[in-house]
Amino acid sequence: MSLVDTLNGDLKAAMKARDKQSLSVIRMLKSALMNEQINAGHDLTDEEAVSVVSRELKQRKESLSEFESANRQDLVDGVKAEIAIVEKYMPKQLSADEVEAIVKETIQQVGATNKGDFGKVMGAVMPKLKGQADGKLINQTVKSLLN
After folding, report:
1. CATH C-level class of 96-146
2. What is the pLDDT of residue 38?
3. What's the average model confidence in pLDDT over 18-42?
4. In which residue ranges of the chain is CATH 1.10.1510.10 found?
5. Is residue 18 pLDDT above 80, yes or no?
6. Mean pLDDT (whole number) for 24-46
7. Please, which contacts does 46-52 make with residues 24 or more away whose CB atoms are closer than 8 Å?
8. Whole-angstrom Cα distance, residue 105 to residue 53?
């Protein structure tokens, strides 16, 4: 079942349950997917759809950190609830150990030896881990392994 079909089913369930928070977030995700589909000019592949959801999740996490630094607990709670809903539509996230193993394997494949090869490693590892791990975690792992 595609992500859009899952969202449609969950949208109906949220409407029936009168769950305003879920309904709002699901509508936002559907809107973002529809906008991306219009911009692309074709039906989105699963990979493109995950990319859109990932982007929405990243925006919410950035908002969360901003609200926390501004001591806006009223907004923090709402964003945390949104993040929990959006995460349901993301693929299973890899652990730090799994990311490290994939990065080590990629470093060996591209023959990287020092910090200067950072871009080469990131270019090779990001397509492998797209949507499965946070970009910051990947970046930090690559930096630590190349040092």
Report:
1. mainly alpha
2. 93
3. 93
4. 3-87
5. yes
6. 91
7. 46/2, 46/3, 47/130, 47/131, 49/2, 49/3, 49/4, 50/3, 50/90, 50/91, 50/130, 50/131, 51/130, 51/131
8. 27
Name the band, by pLDDT with cuts 50, 70 and 90, for residue 81.
Answer: very high
**In the block, which residue shows the tokens 């959801």?**
53
Helix, strand or coil, per DSSP, at residue 43: coil
Provide CATH 1.10.10.410 ranges for the chain.
Answer: 96-146
Distances (CA, A) of 47 to 12, 26, 74, 129: 24, 18, 34, 11
Residue 3: CB atoms within 10 Å: 20
Select the CATH number that applies to the domain covering 3-87 from these four: 3.20.20.70, 1.10.1510.10, 3.40.630.30, 1.20.120.420.
1.10.1510.10
